[in-house]
Write a structure and sequence with these properties.
By secondary structure, this protein is α+β, with helices and mostly antiparallel strands. The chain has a two-stranded antiparallel ribbon. It has a two-stranded parallel ribbon with strand order 3-4.
Length: about 90
């Protein structure tokens, strides 16, 4: 991501409460969620998730199970990162 794209993204994230920040999503527009300074990341394998998609997550590793339990009560937001299999 270029410095210009990053500054544009940060400007939308750091907007004042009550100011609407929007991001194009498919055919319509939706309000951008607040992204916390520290974002918990859940690695997923064999799955591609697009922004705005709602899907059930099957979490099996103990460390991965702990992440939503710790994060959701505080911020309701965590990131997903697609992880490649070691081949």
């Amino acid at each position: 991501m270029s410095a210009k794209e990053l500054s544009t993204f940060r400007a939308g994230v750091e907007s004042k409460p009550g100011t609407e920040s929007t991001i194009a999503a498919g055919t319509g527009e939706s309000q951008m969620p607040h992204i916390p300074e520290e974002l918990s990341i859940l690695p997923v394998r064999g799955l591609v998730i697009f922004p705005g998609t709602i899907i059930p997550l099957t979490i099996q590793r103990a460390a991965s199970l702990k992440l939503p339990d710790d994060t959701l009560p505080r911020t309701k937001v965590f990131g997903l990162l697609t992880q490649r299999d070691e081949a």
